[in-house]
Amino acid sequence: MIAQYDLVLWLHVVIMGYWLGSDFVLNALTHYFKNAKDMPAAERLKLWDFLLLVDQHPRNALILSIPLGFQLAADLNLSPVTGSALTALWIASVAWFIFIWVLHFQTGKPSYRPLSQMDLTLRYSLVVVLFLIGAMSLLGDGPLMAKWLGAKVALFALVIAGGLGIRHYIAKVYVVIPKLKAEGSTPEVEAVITHSLNWGSYILFGMWAVIVAIGYLGVAKPF
Questions:
Q1: Angle at CA 82, nearest 5°, toward 78 and 83?
Q2: 23 φ, ψ (degrees, to nearest 5)
Q3: Which helix (H) or strand (E) holds 177?
């Protein structure tokens, strides 16, 4: 029978592949949307809605990576998050996973903004908490019992921060969506779309580099 650690490790690798694969599709759709200036506005907005649906998959992967990572650390006796605390983390992660899908289907409704703010607050909090835990552990003064694991957690916090940066630029596109719907493509609208999606792509490329580094640390355990 396969050991629990090996099963969780396999799932962790699968989730990383799922994350990067969906990111590649998202990046391709982003460039297609950005350059589809001659597409009828109604069709282009359908493409935008599909792009946002695809964007849910990297968010899925990010959330699932957290309990899987802490489960692996617990199985290696490298984390104090064990037992009931680890169970609570799994429950909280499943609840967050459900919440982001509820949030997605509230897009455009009055409830979307307060729910989105709750999600943003959680993500900003995680960036701070995980980076501090990781950095302190990397320096040998934190709760994680391996420096390479501390580095992984600190880098993961940067990935979450990168996702927040991408959301910032997606929000800028949302501002001109009503104008696109009413007037179609205009130089003003296209300037905002091009600038915002280009910067979103730059952040995404940086996130890929960080994710690769995280994978290397998990395999090589260099320090």
A1: 155
A2: -65, -40
A3: helix 147-183
Q: Which of 100, 23, 97 is CA-nearest to residue 67?
A: 97
DSSP states of 138-151: HTT-SSSS-HHHHH
> 217 is written with which tokens?
């640390």
Q: Region of 108 please: left (phi>0), alpha (psi -120 to 50) or beta.
A: left
The answer to whether 184 and 83 have CB atoms below 8 angstroms apart is: no
**Rounded Cα gap, residues 77 and 56, in angstroms:** 32
> Which amino acid is present at 182?
A
Could you identify the residue written with the tokens 């792009």? 51
Q: Residue with structure tokens 């992660």?
A: 93
The mean pLDDT of the chain is 94
Q: How confident is the model at residue 107 (pLDDT cuts 50, 70, 90)?
A: confident
Q: What is the pLDDT of residue 2?
A: 64
Structure tokens at 60: 């899925």
Do the Cβ atoms of 182 and 134 come closer than 8 Å?
no
Tokens of 25: 């599709």
106, amino acid identity? Q
Q: How far apart are the C-alpha atoms of 169 and 175, rounded to whole Å?
A: 10
Residue 203, pLDDT > 90, answer yes
Closest CA to 39 of 193, 171, 166, 174: 193
Tokens at 169, concatenated:
């630029």
What are the C-alpha distances in Å from 27 to residues 20, 31, 196?
10, 6, 13
> What is the rounded CA–CA span in Å between residue 201 and residue 35?
14
